[in-house]
Design goal:
Largest sheet: 8 strands, parallel, barrel
Number of helices: 8
Structural class: alpha/beta
CATH superfamily: Aldolase class I
CATH architecture: Alpha-Beta Barrel
Distance between the termini: 11 Å
CATH class: Alpha Beta
Length: about 190
C-alpha cells in the first residue's frame, strides 16, 4: 500500500512522514532546475534519513542531481528515456483511460490517475469517479496510485476500486488518518 504525498513545505513533509507516508513527491512548480535542487535538498535529506522514497515532480535533471529515487512526469513533460537511463523510478500521470493506456505503454513504475474527485488543485478538470478509476486499474499493467480529492474519508474506496495506493496534496497534513484508513481497507 502506497501513501504518496505531494508537498512543497518541509514541515508538511516531516508531518506526513511521521504519519506514515511511504513516498514524498516534491512539487515546487515554476522553479529553474538549479533553484529546485537548492530548495529540494532538505527534502531529499529528510527522506533519506527517514527511509522514505523521494520523487521530484516534472524535472528529470533535478531528480538526477538531487539523487532522488524517482521522477513523476505529467503528460506534457519530457524525459522518460533520460529517467530510465539514470535508473530513476518513473511515475506518469493520466486523467482518462486513453491517457492511462498510452502511459502504460511506456512501462512506468506507477501511474498517478485522477483526479478521482473534484479538487482545487486541478480546477476545471473533471473528476473521474470510482467507476472510471476501476476501469483504468483493470486496463493497465502498471500499478495505479489514485489522486485528486482524496482524504481519510474516501482513501479506502480507491483501494477497493483497484488502486495500490493514494496520493494526497491537501490531506498531506493528515497523513496519519489517511494511513489508518488505508490499513483498515487492506485488512
Amino acid at each position: 500500500m502506497i501513501l504518496h504525498v505531494l508537498v512543497d513545505d518541509l514541515g508538511v513533509a516531516r508531518r506526513a512522514i511521521d504519519g506514515g507516508a511511504t513516498l514524498v513527491q516534491l512539487r515546487l512548480k515554476g522553479l529553474s532546475t538549479d533553484h529546485l535542487i537548492e530548495e529540494g535538498q532538505p527534502f531529499r535529506d529528510l527522506c533519506a534519513s527517514s527511509g522514505v522514497s523521494f520523487v521530484v515532480n516534472d524535472d528529470v535533471e533535478a531528480a538526477i542531481r538531487l539523487g532522488a529515487d524517482g521522477v513523476h512526469l505529467g503528460r506534457d513533460d519530457e524525459g522518460i528515456e533520460r529517467a530510465r537511463v539514470a535508473g530513476l523510478k518513473l511515475g506518469l500521470s493520466a486523467q482518462t483511460l486513453d491517457e492511462a493506456l498510452a502511459a502504460d505503454d511506456e512501462h512506468p513504475d506507477y501511474l498517478g490517475v485522477g483526479p478521482v474527485w473534484a479538487t482545487p488543485v486541478k480546477r476545471g478538470v473533471p473528476a473521474l469517479g470510482l467507476e472510471r478509476l476501476h476501469e483504468i486499474c483493470e486496463s493497465v499493467a502498471a500499478p495505479v496510485v489514485a489522486i485528486g480529492g482524496i482524504d481519510a474519508t474516501n482513501a479506502a474506496l480507491c483501494l477497493e476500486a483497484g488502486a495500490v495506493g493514494v496520493a494526497v496534496v491537501r490531506a498531506s497534513t493528515d497523513a496519519a488518518a489517511v494511513r489508518t484508513a488505508l490499513e483498515r481497507a487492506a485488512v
